[in-house]
Amino acid sequence: MHIHILGICGTFMGSLALLAKELGHRVTGSDANVYPPMSTQLEEQGIELMHGYHVEHLQPAPDLVVVGNALSRGNPAVEYVLNAGLAYVSGPQWLAEHVLQGRWVLAVAGTHGKTTTSSMLAWILEYAGMQPGFLIGGVPQNFGISARLGETDFFVVEADEYDSAFFDKRSKFVHYRPRTAVLNNLEFDHADIFPDLAAIEQQFHHLVRTVPSNGLLIYPAQEQAIGRVLDKGCWTPRQTTGPDGQWQARLLKDDGSEFVVSLDGVEQGVVRWPLTGLHNVANALAALAAARHVGVTAEHGAQALREFENVKRRMQNLGCVRGVTVYDDFAHHPTAIASTLDGLRKQVGKQQIIAVIEPRSNSMKLGAHREGLAPSTALADHVFWYAPDNLGWDLASTVADAPVPTQVCSSLEDIIAGVLALAQADTQVVIMSNGGFGGIHTQLMEALEAAQ
């Protein structure tokens, strides 16, 4: 079967393409924005990428068109699919029908940490010899690929609350029907499709309704929004994580790089790893709990996490140039920005931290998180914000009362020049964006190399 994927370079759709190819289909795809790591991964797997949404890409007609949720009515490819009567489906529905049906699905949902936690969980199962399938919205470095079918019934999926397609406004995760479900946390996000937090909570309620009574729900005990979701109805056994939960972590190092795991007050094992930040400690507890549900002891899981390599673009160390270390991070929400900087600060102490942030997510572009942006950077020493002319709101006034020195720039050149002026030995530069950010990572490192 020839499957053509519209929006193939999205993290979810690109992963879907890998699964379709592994099933033996001929897979092609088109997208308006093509950038690593997904474009690189697809090309390495021999999947043909086409730039733009031209109707010629759909001629001759494929057997099935999988439509990404970034596309809407008015898109030339969408209009052609409808007018020509081509067979089409949403990505989540295709995944559910052709990959997940009949399998033990372990789904990781929540506002933050989905990609990292699902990567941890897949790795724990792999380390235990369970050869799981997985679909993750990023590239876990332990695997070097974002999706595979696997060799057993177990399948780990990053379960996104974003809508499925222009013709299916349900959250993606409603299609997945997990037996093990992690609800990491819940905050307002995706302001382009959800009017408020209550609307997101309703979608999480729909997810909870699909988890069977012989399954397991795992969530932080202190999360009030998740508590409200479960108050709407829950028919599944639960386990809780965090300071007030059944699964707890006792830090041996403040930066979260070493901690003891306990369940119901009984120590299970020690995690020692290169990751930092309390958010990653919380992610680990959820992953360990989910893995235990399918038979992996927490002690064995803790051993696996010692060899865990984080996902690309999650505080990924790109290298050190003239004593300046540059990181690529996906943080695109005030909570994520603050958590990332907290972990780095505890790791590097008083060394200079420079944060470079692009407000690129749909919610950021709409200004939905404006009030939290300035406070989220408090643990940096200096912050550069990127405000292109088409941002649509006044970023400069939003961060005018920032707690640390802050500059708002309209060009990448100005940001690079500003970083160069401040950088010195033992400086940590964290570049935060959920997109390619114009290739600023490479440009900055080249500029650092060339600086005298």
From TrEMBL:
Domain Mur ligase C-terminal: 313-435
UniProt key word Cell wall biogenesis/degradation: yes
UniProt-listed Enzyme Commission number(s): 6.3.2.45
Binding residues for ATP: G110, T111, H112, G113, K114, T115, T116
Reported cofactor(s): Mg(2+)
Domain Mur ligase central: 108-291
InterPro entries attached to this UniProt entry: Mpl, Mur-like_cat_sf, Mur_ligase_C, Mur_ligase_C_dom_sf, Mur_ligase_cen, Mur_ligase_N, MurCDEF_pg_biosynth
EC top class named in words: ligase
Domain Mur ligase N-terminal catalytic: 2-100
Recorded family membership: Belongs to the MurCDEF family. Mpl subfamily.
Function: Reutilizes the intact tripeptide L-alanyl-gamma-D-glutamyl-meso-diaminopimelate by linking it to UDP-N-acetylmuramate.
Name recorded for this polypeptide: UDP-N-acetylmuramate--L-alanyl-gamma-D-glutamyl-meso-2,6-diaminoheptandioate ligase
Gene: mpl
